[in-house]
Amino acid sequence: DGGITQSPKYLFRKEGQNVTLSCEQNLNHDAMYWYRQDPGQGLRLIYYSQIVNDFQKGDIAEGYSVSREKKESFPLTVTSAQKNPTAFYLCASSIEGASGAQETQYFGPGTRLLVL
Amino acid sequence: AQSVSQHNHHVILSEAASLELGCNYSYGGTVNLFWYVQYPGQHLQLLLKYFSGDPLVKGIKGFEAEFIKSKFSFNLRKPSVQWSDTAEYFCAVRLNTGNNRKLIWGLGTSLAVNP
User: Fold this and answer.
1) Are B114 and B12 in contact (CB under 8 A)?
2) Which of B43, B98, B102 sits opposite A108 (nearest CB)?
3) Is A45 in contact with B44 (Cβ distance < 8 A)?
4) In a 3-state reduction of DSSP, which class is residue B2?
5) pLDDT in tens, A48-102
6) What is the dihedral of CA A106, A111, A112, A115, to 10 degrees?
7) Chain B: residue nearest A107 by CA?
8) Of residues A42, A58, A92, nearest to B108 (C-beta)
């Protein structure tokens, strides 16, 4: 059963704590993405990775970090520097087309992060 | 800066009513266009997409969208909505410039269909 899995479904963070959100895909997709979704603000790109061991900052990377050691995995760490981490986090992946174009992003079920 | 605008933030319809959700983008070059849907408690799903060819695109669950290049628009339509169409709808645009992989997202439209 192919797809994108995110864990946990809900995550609680204490002040000053770093937390890591998991994203795994078995679609053999090259590119992976992390988005943050807030009510009324749509999706905002945090980080993306087009290939293993490489990643780029998105529009709101401050306070977050990622790694891409394996093609299947793209974990996101929400650091203590992120002052407003409460949000719904979505992971996505896509095929890297031959021309670099025309790939569709597919999404995981999301992780809701709450600050205690 | 490039942007995507969804004109309606909240839409309330009765079952069997027709639906049209607006989406406009600001970019003069070649684009790929997407509509995604997020049903309550579910993950974001692709509804339909336009890459090239026929500007009238048909998607899942009876939805369709028309790309009008001269108007920079990609409006989503459904002739008769059902209660199960209650969801949040997002328009997204990818600019075909070099190695650009980023999607630009609209803020979403929340649709509530009354039975």
Assistant:
1) yes
2) B43
3) no
4) coil
5) 998 999 999 999 999 999 999 999 999 999 998 888 999 999 999 998 765 555 5
6) -140
7) B44
8) A42
Q: Is the pLDDT of residue B6 over 70?
A: yes
3-state secondary structure of A18: coil
Amino acid at A83: K
pLDDT at B99 over 70: no
Nearest to B103 by CA among A29, A76, A106: A106
A53 conformational bin, left if phi > 0, alpha if psi -120 to 50, beta if neither = left
The arithmetic mean of pLDDT across residues A31-39, rounded, is 93
DSSP assignment of B57-92, as one string? EE-GGG-EEEEEGGGTEEEEEESS--GGG-EEEEEE
Tell me which DSSP letter residue B44 carries.
Answer: -
